[in-house]
Structure formats: C-alpha cells, structure tokens
Amino acid sequence: MSIESKVEAALAVLKQGGLIIVADDESREAEGDMVGLAEFATTETVNRMITSARGLLCLPVAPTIAERLYLDLMTTKSHDAFGTAFTVSLDHHTTTTGISAADRATTIRHVADPTSQPDDFYHPGHMFPLIARAGGVLERRGHTEAAVDLAKLAGVTPAAYICEIVKKNGLMARRKELKALAEGLKIPMITVADIAAYRVRQTQPTLTQLDPVKLPTVHGQFNLTGMQLPGENQLQLALQLGNLNTDEPVLVRLHSECLTGDVFGSQRCDCGQQLQTALQTIGDQGRGLLLYLRQEGRGIGLANKLRAYHLQEQGVDTYDANVQLGLPADARRYDQAAVMLHALGITKIRLMTNNLDKVDQLTAYGIDVVERVPLEIPANEHDAAYLKTKRDKFHHQLSATL
Questions:
Q1: What 3-state DSSP class applies to 60?
Q2: CB burial class (10 A; 0-12, 13-18, 19+) of residue 195?
Q3: Does 255 show up as a binding residue in the annotation?
Q4: Does the active-site annotation cover 332?
Q5: pTM (predicted TM-score)
Q6: pLDDT of 233
Q7: Which of 13, 166, 178, 284 is 20–30 Å from 257 (CA)?
Q8: CB neighbours of 57 closer than 8 A, spacing ≥ 6?
Q9: Which one, of 374, 372, 348, lies nearest residue 359 by Cα?
Q10: Any known ligand binding at 253?
Q11: Which residues are noted in the entry as D-ribulose 5-phosphate-binding (predicted)?
C-alpha cells in the first residue's frame, strides 16, 4: 500500500471517531501510541484506549489552543530528551472525579471546543495536554506533532488524544507488537515518517529562500543559497554547480553539519573528508548539488556531541554514547532535504551516501533515487572504531575489512 493510501485510510477511520496506532521512528523512542481525534472522543473510545494501550493518556494540542486556554508549561526547564511540552494538567468543570473514561472524554472534547474558555477548566487535573510544534512533524518527529498533524489533515480542530502502548508485562511495545495489536484490534497502523512524507507530498511547505550568491572554491564555483523551512530557526544551505534543470538525474550529497570535522579537520570521524570529497566529485563532474543540513552531532547538537565524545574516550562507542545520554543514536531527519529538492525542481537524483536510511527517507518523500553512489573514506587510526560502529550498528554500507 502506498504512503498516500495508508495515511488516507487512517484519516478516514479517525474522521469516523475511530482509533489508530502511530509508530515512532526506529531511531527515536521506537514506540507506538494509540491516537484519536479530540472532538470525537467518547467514553467508549477513551476506555478502549486506556485498556488496550495502558500508557499515559495525553492531549496534544496546537499552540493556538494552548494560548487560548492559558495552558502554561508544566515546568519552565524541561529535562526531557525529546522536548515533550507537557502543560499543567486539567479537568473540565463539569466532571466529577475527573479520572473515569467518561470524565476524561468530556475534558478532551471541551479542550477541542473552540468556545471553551480558560475558566472552564480546573488545575491540576487528570488530562495532560501537550503542545505541538507549529511546524508539526516537519519540525519535530514526535507523537504530539503527529497527532495534531492528523487532526489538521482531517480538517477538524487541531487537538487529539493519545496513549503510549505498553505490553501486558509492563514493557514498551515495539514495532512487532504494535503490528500485532493493530491487527488484533482491526485498526490502521501508520508511522510518524508516513505522516511527514504525506505532508511533504501533499502540501509542499513554503521555503524562505535567500538570493543565491557565488561561492568560488577549490572544487569549482558553486552557487550558494540559504533556505529556511517554516517553524525552523536554522538556515539550511544548498551548494549548486552547473545546470540542474535537465532530465538527467542530479548528483546529490546530503551532508549533516559537523563543526569538528568540517571546520577543524577532526580525524575522529570521516565527516570533513566526506564533505570535501563530495564537493570534489561534483566539481569533477561539473554538475551536482550538496545540501548542507544543520544537524550537528547526528541531530543531538554540539554540546551533547561533546558529551558523547567524553563517553567515547572512556571506551563507549558512538552509538551507545548517545543512548547513555538518553538521546537517539541518530536523530537526523531528511524531510527538510526533500522539501529543498522539491523547491529546486529536483525529483530524480543519484545520491552520494553509504547510509541506506537516506535513500529510504528521500524515496518516501517522493524523490526518485535512481542510484546510490558510495562515498567511503579510508579509515585512520583515530576513526577506525567509529567507522566500524557505523557499519555494524547503523548499517552503513562500508568495507567489511574495517
């Protein structure tokens, strides 16, 4: 089934008041939530959710709803690794204990009611609102944003109710168990990546593009364009060489920012050499594109990357270092790259990468990857273990002799 068919089938169930399962990215929490649309919440659907999913029942809302109902954040300093934006809990004033399925359904529906006022709710309560990022899953790949995006795609109030799925033994359900549960309940299951891909294909977010400037390099004179997606504060960069507006597939490299490698020439990783080799390859061929994506440290940021380096110096590998910090092993996402490619009119590419996840994600976002072009850098004494981990744990297509 195509991504469009899967998402639209899920939307049809949601618009009828039903429930679906949304699975997280494998590189993130790798968990699943049951999801329903807030304005259709009933005693029956809430009860089904809390008895089948067993996790914490939450109430994702768009920022506009949080502002209208004066929903303040639960804490001004969050320590959550994934940036989950919990607000103060609440109950609708007509509820009794607030905890029954009927009472929670009442609170959920009234939060979704555009006529509700802040004084209609008591704090604290038994429902836990979550504020979604304005850019949805294209800004943050969480269940909060996925649920609110689904509400928007369904054309209803941007609010939903969700619950993490926990197995009977108390452990979190993973992809295999989520599929089994969806089949048992006869409800659709989609992924956060499906929703992101659907949005990219259907809505094509508007980019802010700066005027291109000439960038002479040792590899040729590129045109450099700054591009910014809605809801993001980082400027992404596109380095173009030659005429890309032809029917021939474009040679493309997606390069995630690495300050230590790109600027300082660190030999702890192959990033800096990959950047220069990619530019040289494009220069030699006289035509191509490099997208410089601001995803320092595989998306965890420079400070956390340095913390991970400290753990690596104690013998922890690059994968487990992130995990020990409570962070995703790889938090990078490539939907923004797909949006940039679409904005540049490029849909057929030859992708320079050793990472099959890039191929899979771009393909899901409607980019035709006609060829994967390897970009392997010989190991040195400092990065051999790092490259081995990339091969063995991240499944990059690297030499078997590492």
A1: strand
A2: buried
A3: yes
A4: yes
A5: 0.69
A6: 81
A7: 284
A8: 46, 49, 50, 104, 127, 128, 161, 162, 163
A9: 372
A10: yes
A11: 28-29, 33, 140-144
Looking only at the bridges linking them, the beta strands covering 288-293 and 250-256 are: parallel
271 is in an annotated binding site: yes
Q: Are 339 and 204 in contact (CB under 8 A)?
A: yes
Q: Which CATH superfamily is domain 208-295+332-392 in?
A: GTP cyclohydrolase II (3.40.50.10990)
Known binding residue 28? Answer is yes
Q: What are the mean pLDDT values of the chain's consecutive 10-residue runs (402 residues total)?
A: 89 98 74 96 98 97 96 74 80 97 98 96 96 88 94 97 96 93 96 88 79 96 92 90 92 98 96 97 97 95 96 95 91 89 91 93 88 94 93 88 66
Question: How far is it, in rounded angstroms, from Cα 37 to Cα 159?
Answer: 6
Give me the residue spans of the domains in the chain: 3-203, 208-295+332-392
Smallest CA-to-CA distance from 190 within 201, 202, 178 is with 178
Q: Could you give the CA distance from residue 182 to residue 391 in angstroms, rounded to a whole number? A: 33
Distance CA 263, CA 239 (A): 17
Cα–Cα distance, 305 to 331 (Å, whole number): 12
pLDDT at 167: 94
36 is annotated as contributing to ligand binding: no
pLDDT score of 83: 62
| Closest alpha carbon to 368 in 352, 349, 353 | 349
- Please state whether beta strands 20-23 and 32-37 pair in parallel, antiparallel, or not at all (unpaired): antiparallel
According to the annotation, is 68 in a ligand binding site?
no
Catalytic residue among 48, 104, 109, 332: 332
Q: What is the CATH number of domain 3-203?
A: 3.90.870.10
Domains 3-203 and 208-295+332-392 share a fold: no
- The one catalytic residue among 24, 25, 103, 330: 330
- Answer for the pair 282, 350: CB distance below 8 angstroms, yes or no: no
